[in-house]
Specification:
This protein is α+β, with helices and mostly antiparallel strands and 119 residues long. The relative contact order is 0.17. The chain is 37% helix and 25% strand.
């Protein structure tokens, strides 16, 4: 992967930062995203993976910096009406990413499974 001179954070610090970022946004969906990021941070299935936020999207990647976490394999998670939508991207230019939707209650288990199996 390409690298850029971007200081990297410890993987666990990125999860705390994501939870804080979403918690600072004033909507129920973003508070739910904050709770989701906090819950995932404690999952052994995301240990060593990085949480990257972009506006209201959470991206989970095994890579530490841009452009690697964008161009490489990753999972994107967005708040959807009453739940979340997820995409598993095999590379940054994946023409046909796999997609799932589920409730916020079911999201931690599904995301942990996707991380374990694909990242």
């Amino acid at each position: 992967m390409d690298t850029e001179n971007t200081p990297s954070q410890a993987w666990d610090a990125t999860w705390r930062a994501a939870a804080t970022r979403f918690g600072d946004l004033d909507s129920d969906a973003m508070r739910s995203m904050s709770s989701l990021a906090s819950e995932l941070a404690d999952s052994p299935d995301v240990r060593g993976l990085f949480a990257v936020t972009s506006m209201t999207t959470l991206r989970i990647s095994p890579y530490t910096c841009y452009p690697d976490w964008f161009n490489g394999r990753h999972i994107t998670i967005d708040a959807d009406s009453g739940g979340v939508s997820m995409c598993l991207v095999s590379n940054g230019h994946d023409p046909d990413p796999r997609r799932w939707t589920c409730s916020f209650a079911d999201a931690p288990d599904l995301i942990a499974s996707l991380c374990r199996d694909h990242l």
